[in-house]
Design goal:
This protein is mostly helical. It has one helix at about 1-120. The protein is rod-shaped.
């Protein structure tokens, strides 16, 4: 039994020596892990900022696309309105000429019968 106590005691001294030797390494590793965690947090913040910037850029691009589409649609509507206005103007001219022709035709008809009346029935 004494031999067993000596053996355990010797092993305990070896473990204690190893722990004393590893202590600074453990402290350095712990500090290094904290540094890596800080760097990871900084990189994550940069990535978050970058993704927000990218999201804003995508939103701006979408807004530009929507604006360009709205302008194209407005141009089509304006062109169609111009076509309708031109057609309406042509129709007004056509009707105006028809009215003028009818009035002239009426007066021609009136003068013809007036002349006929004066020629044949004049006293």
């Amino acid at each position: 039994m004494d031999e067993l106590i000596v053996l355990v005691s010797e092993r305990l001294r070896n473990v204690s020596t190893a722990l004393n030797w590893l202590g600074p390494w453990v402290m350095n590793a712990s500090q290094h892990a904290r540094n890596l965690e800080e760097q990871a947090n900084k990189l994550e913040k940069l990535l978050t900022d970058t993704s927000k910037f990218a999201e804003k850029a995508v939103n701006a691009s979408n807004a530009y696309s929507n604006l360009a589409k709205a302008i194209k649609d407005a141009l089509k509507i304006a062109q169609e309105a111009d076509r309708f206005a031109t057609d309406a103007q042509k129709e007004v001219r056509r009707l105006f000429l028809k009215i003028i022709y009818s009035i002239n035709h009426y007066y021609d008809y009136y003068y013809y019968y007036y002349y006929y009346y004066l020629t044949f029935f004049a006293i």
